[in-house]
Design brief:
Blueprint lengths: L1 H100 L2 H13 L5 H31 L8 E4 H18 L3 E6 L5 E4 L1 H17 L6 E9 L2 E8 L33 H11 L3 E5 L7 E8 L22 E5 L3 H13 L3 E5 L2 H10 L4 E5 L7 H10 L7 E6 L4 H10 L3 E4 L4 H11 L1
Parallel strand pairs: 2-4, 8-9, 8-10, 10-11, 11-12
Antiparallel strand pairs: 1-3, 4-5, 5-7, 6-7
Membrane topology: Multi-pass membrane protein
GO molecular function, one term: phosphorelay sensor kinase activity
Enzyme class: transferase
Length: 449
Amino acid sequence: MYHDDETGSMQRSLDSMEAQLQPDAYTGALHRHIASLEQEIARLRTALKGKEELEASVARLREANEHLVLAAINEQGLRDDAEAANRRQNEFLAMLAHELRNPLVPISMSSMLLERSANATPQLLNFSKVIRRQVDHMAALLDDLLDAARISSGKITLNLEPLSLSATIDQALETVLPRIAERGQVFELDLASKELGARGDRVRLTQVFTNLIGNASKYTGDGGRIGLQVRREGEEIVAVISDNGTGIAPEVLPHIFDLFTQGPRSLARSEGGLGVGLNVVRNLVTMHGGTIRADSPGIGQGSRFTLRLPACALPELAPDAPGHVVAASGGCRVLVIEDNPDACETLKAFLDMEGHQVSVAHDGQAGLDRLLEQPFDVVVCDIGLPGMDGLEVMARLRASEEGARPVAIGLSGYGQAEDRARATEAGFDHYLVKPVNPDALLALVAARA
């Protein structure tokens, strides 16, 4: 009995101990499970935070991409607007030059008529020369303005060939020396060798030297000194144009080749510029693979422009062939088609004076009718006629089997390559840009004779 009681007591003790131990085990497991859950929750929270940050980054990236697309669209729009504005500017400048050149034709021809008049007095001849110089100056300003626009739009191409620099300089001097002489200035030329050669465009390099020497004369007082020294240094031709004129201020010197940059001009100056000539010079020189630099000690101390061009060997020249002499004749039958009454009248008078038989027409249709009705040796036709323009007149004439095939000389205020190409395609044999050089016109007419 006692034994049973002892056994029961022990069993109850064991049950009590087991009951005490079991909750502790469950609690530990529960704690471990809770800790594991907390870790998982922390991991999920970290992942969720990373996802939110990623979504925020994606949103920002999407927004930035939308801004980038809008910026690209706006940039393209601005580029299109700029190109359209540049195209309109070039078209306007070409039209402006054409309209400004038109009145220069009768002015130039009238001055030539005065010079050739049998009753011209010395004073009248002097006035006539002044008119011609100012016409040439006006034409040069228009050329500079147009060239600046063409260069900026990449529309100028060079016809590169080996050429004699001395011959190029001679052509430039033919233009500027009369003005230098008129102002009593002294011009000194130091040409190391007449065999100096450069690979370039003859017309454009002549333009460069004309501009630089003319600029030196313009900014040098009456009686001043201008010099041009040309020599070869290694593989380069170096030309230095110097003067003892007004000089260039230190603050202007770094920008002297920029567009529309000019030095100070006194009120007494009788001629100025547009501030584009030197910009055109720099661009043309760069297109030739050369460089140009300006130096001046300061105001009133003169200036110096140093031009460097790649040198090249000149081809051997063939012996001069005897010139072809055109026999004198009774003149040509010439038809002038020009809607400007003053230009038409002066052209007719000018050609009449040279012994040609001249008829006129004031519009394209009347000119074409005259050409189909009777034969002419030469037709001098303005391109910009109202209604039927000169291109259509010539195209219809060339397409017709009637009438003679006269030498066709086109006159226009537009001088770009595409303008010349259209005239040639229409059937013109020659293309002269206004104001027409009277001697060039006479030479073309005389060649037909």
